[in-house]
Amino acid sequence: MNLREILTMWKKIIRLSRKPDREEYILSIKISFLAFFLVGGIAYLVKLVAYLVSRI
Description:
Blueprint: H1 3-16, H2 22-55
């Protein structure tokens, strides 16, 4: 790929992109927080199980 092709691709991406509306933005925040707490909860449970197993 040369520089001209890369710039053309970037121009297409910029042209197609748009600012999300309020509803779409709120939904993406909810999904992000859900994933954050889900991964954190799983990590906490793994750490708790590892601690309990090491105490035996």
